[in-house]
Give the backbone structure.
Amino acid sequence: MVQVNTQVRKRISAYAIAVRDDRLLLARLSDASPVFMPGLWHLPGGGIDPGEQPVEALARELVEETGLELIEAHLLDARTYSVRRSGVSWSLTALFYAVALGKGAPTVTEVDGSTEAAVWVPLADVQGEAPLSPAAADALRMLDRVKAAFAGTR
């Protein structure tokens, strides 16, 4: 029997589910994306650095990928994914947060990062033919919980 040494990289990430005026904030992945395929629409957010708290990582990633300030965050769910890309196996844990963001238009501020664009996409378009990452597709199933997370706080 031949034994194959398969290295699995583990990553824990925090992602924002932001809805404003029936639009969902999405980030299009660039060629620098280490895990999911470039060109997919994904949620803004990303990896949690060692010693960093998840909400701190989320706030940092939101500024890098959208230029928008995190005002409020409510943990909704956690999901795991197994992905193989470019010969690397990934074990991903994603923390999903319903978020409120500061005003302004999304603008990618990170240079040479994994995000090439950030836009508010009408929910009708997102639920149609948009090529979504697995995490973004899961976020669509959480939209009712996003509204519930902010019920009575606005």
